[in-house]
Amino acid sequence: MKAARLEDGVLEIQDLPTPTPGHEEALIRISSTGICHSDLHIARGDWVGVPRTGVIGHEAIGIVEALGPGAERYAAIGDRVILGLGGSGGGYWCGACEYCLRGEPRHCSQTKGIIGTFAEQFCVWAKSLVKLPDSVGDEEAPLACGGLTAYGAVKKLLKHHIQPGRAVAIVGAAGGLGHYAIQIANAFGYKVVGVDIGADRLEFVKSMGAHLAVEAEDAAEIVEREFGGVDASIVFSARMAGFDLGLKLLRRGGLFVAVGLPATSEGNLELNPFEFFLKDPTLIYSAVGNVQDMRELVEMAASGQVKSHIGRVGALSELGAIFDELEAGKYVGRAVINDLGS
Ligand SMILES: [Zn+2]
Ligand SMILES: [Zn+2]
User: Fold this and answer.
1) What is the distance between the alpha carbons of residues 76 and 30, in angstroms, rounded to a whole number?
2) What's the rounded Cα separation, in Å, for the pair 150 and 176?
3) What is the pTM of this model?
4) Per-residue confidence at 231, pLDDT binned at 50, 70, 90?
5) C-alpha of residue 291 to centroid of ligand 2, in Å
6) Domains (ranges, CATH) in the chain?
7) Contact (Cβ atoms closer than 8 angstroms) between residue 179 and residue 147
8) Distance between CA atoms of 166 and 90, rounded to whole angstroms?
């Protein structure tokens, strides 16, 4: 089977043996796979300590082609499924440790990631699969990480008692995750302030349903004037400037939800203790979601409340070119590979 691999950061399309599904695993024939900013970060070596050799790709839709022992309890051959990062860390969680039992499988010490979906076939723990209705097309593969991550972040607003009707800033609103967050926060009843850079991107933010679409450099002034600060900022930006802005936009006692993962070279999030005292924000990180979140998101997509905006479609052989375009901000929304065989 064809698969994309990084060899010390250099992208290669290789012929690899078809994997064999192990205990409770399913072999999936990939129909479509989305390109996440994380794939680019790994390829570029942005995160110190993350290896730049190995298979990549972690969001996909496909068909169950074979089952390992025990997997028949969770999936059937022929099922059309989304390979959501439903265990937060990915494809496996133990279900019995203190983290799993309190609904945070991302922290499970036995978690195993989903990685390697830029391939014709892929093995995954069958319990983490979510079946798709026909109304959710193959182009929705980016729901698996991009959509789920946005959903997980917006859902945390409810957990932190941010009431519908309140103003919420989405920093990096035109991107692969931000465009989902606008739709999801709208569906939850929030007043969405979408922040991004450039007229085209802001027009896109508006078209996704944002109450306000504002340039990053004007955001602080507009948000202060319109709302006296937002109740929550969700920061999808991969730049530290986006993190700083997210904090700045908050009203007193606001909630800061970090989602983006800037390169190590971007430095640290800084907060002056006196500002901390004055503003008294709650700071949290939100990574992907759990398998129940994935099921809920699939329902939202099926009912038309959430739709992936696919700004680029290509074949596996175009992956390197798509990375360059993503880096240069040449398309809005998400890119999808729908031809894994060439
Ligand atoms: Zn991702
Ligand atoms: Zn666990």
Assistant:
1) 16
2) 9
3) 0.93
4) very high
5) 13
6) 2-145+288-339 (3.90.180.10), 148-285 (3.40.50.720)
7) no
8) 32
